[in-house]
Amino acid sequence: MNALFPLKAKSIQKNAALISITVRSKQQMPLSAPTPCRYPSCPEVLATPGFCSKHKGTVHRDYGRARRLFDGEVSFYRSSAWRATRAAFLRDNPLCVRCKANGLFIQAMVVDHVLPLKDGGERFNRINLQSLCVSCHNRKTAIETHAKSFKPRRD
After folding, report:
1. What is d(CA 147, CA 95) in angstroms, rounded to the nearest whole number?
2. DSSP states of 106-118
3. Alpha-carbon distance 87 to 92, whole Å?
């Protein structure tokens, strides 16, 4: 302690003790153990499960390539004929039909097939198209996907 200013020295010591306690309390244990990169034979250790920065792009690129090979719909949605049909349909129907039915006026961003293409829906028939906002489209797609995956057992 400082002999000339004992009270000031005590307050400095108290502040230093409080600061060290605060710093120690902010340092927490990690929520999970470090895990290795999921890429085969990669020695990188990560704080969260997944791929390291070196392999993340490679895996993403390979997934995209594989999807383009087996999913014919990807090329359809990138075609100029579909893009023109979509743009014209959104011009004619700018509001989400589901939100509009509930009294909301939300701009549509997606042109959706009422009967999905995988279930035999017609691609360019305007009767099979509807304009939806992203939220309604995601909800409709999730319901359809769940309905397909849920198959009741036949005993």
Report:
1. 27
2. -B--EEEESS-GG
3. 9
Which tokens in the block code for residue 112? 């959706």
CA torsion through residues 125, 130, 133, 135, sign: negative
Q: Each residue of 99-121: pLDDT tens digit?
A: 999 999 999 999 999 998 888 88
The helix (run of H) or strand (run of E) holding residue 137 is: helix 134-149
- Within 10 angstroms of residue 3's Cβ, the number of other Cβ atoms is 6
pLDDT given at position 91: 97
Identity of the amino acid at 58: T
User: From CA 55, how far away is CA 62, in angstroms rounded?
Assistant: 11
User: Can you tell me the distance from the alpha carbon of 107 to that of 95, in angstroms, rounded to the nearest whole number?
Assistant: 5
